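Minutes, project huddle
Topic: does the predicted pose make sense with adenosine monophosphate bound?
PN asked that the exact inputs be recorded in the minutes so nobody has to dig through chat later. Recorded below.
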Amino acid sequence: MKYTIATLASHSALQILKGAKDEGFETLAIATRDKASFYKRFSFINEVIELDTYRDLFKIENKLKQRNVIIIPHGSFVAYLGEDYEKKLEVPQYGSKKVLTWEGDRLKQMKWLEESNLLLPKLYNQASSIDQLVIVKLYGAKGGSGYFLAANQEDFQKKIIKFKKEKYIIQQYLVGTPVYLQYFYSKMENRIELMGIDRRYETNVDGLSRIPYQYAKSIDMEPTYTVIGNFPIVVRESLLPEIYAMGERVVAASQKLIPGQGLYGPFCLETIITKNQKFYCIEISCRIVAGTNLFVNGSPYTDLVYNEPMSTGKRIAREIKNAIRLNRLKEILD
Ligand code: AMP
Ligand code: AMP
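Predicted holo structure (tokens), as shared on screen:
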């Protein structure tokens, strides 16, 4: 049977579809009309379907199913299809849907990360207990506007007024080095692979830090964390054993918490490494993250395992190809 690998034309679609083509799949980009002509520039995309809105994807599912389409989800799916999109989606996707409900609920996510023996930033249940610099995160504010810093309780009360009844969490602000660890857990090989490491380039927080102190001290501006791009990182080699172990613990904990439907495929631990070289995990993303776009041609870490360029997109396609060969495709589609 012939399979087509498809994704929404955005985020990491180029990497995903390039990898799929390299592995011999037919490729399909599902685009809005304004984006279609851009994606048609790339010869590794066999077809671009044009829709008025991304949500129209749900209207063409029958057509996609007839063509044996496998969907690869990425960071735009929730943004463009809505929360809980996975409950509506009928076309098979690569990756556990159950895991997404654990990821989407901040308290469940914390339970999972704690169960994985990861260090987490302290959470404050009430403003009166704020005893250090905190970062306040509104629910649904993904990486950016909707976050603010507060130095103490008074500062918090002043700033929260703007947000009325929205739900939020108050988290210890960690001073350290933000490091995003890109993993792949292969069900076929039953092993964790480190695909790459990156750091985000964010506006305006990265711009603020370029202002010399003599000027910065008189500017009253809140930092925002809207991601613009990513830098590659290689870490001290002595940190790698713990990085691999953390990935393994996260997968093992998911298998315990969600029997039979635990985490597999690409995922990312968003961490901050503090001065004593401890990793604190601020979030987990259970899908391909855009920072992997740095490594379309492989990373320093995949080069140690593969004697060929291996991106996360290509790794996903390789896993699907192996599963088809082993007659185990059902295990990795949801
Ligand atoms: P876009 O297609 O650029 O509008 O992005 C769609 C979604 O993916 C948004 O939720 C973005 O925040 C997220 N996204 C895009 N690029 C990145 C990136 N480099 N790192 C993290 N998230 C990203
Ligand atoms: P996130 O949306 O969780 O990926 O976070 C967006 C940005 O906020 C990243 O640059 C993080 O480094 C920063 N950030 C999030 N949580 C914390 C924290 N607890 N301490 C310090 N920085 C944080």
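Observations noted during the meeting:
- DSSP finds twelve helices and 13 strands in the chain.
- Residues 240-257 form the longest helix (18 residues).
No decisions taken; revisit at the next huddle.
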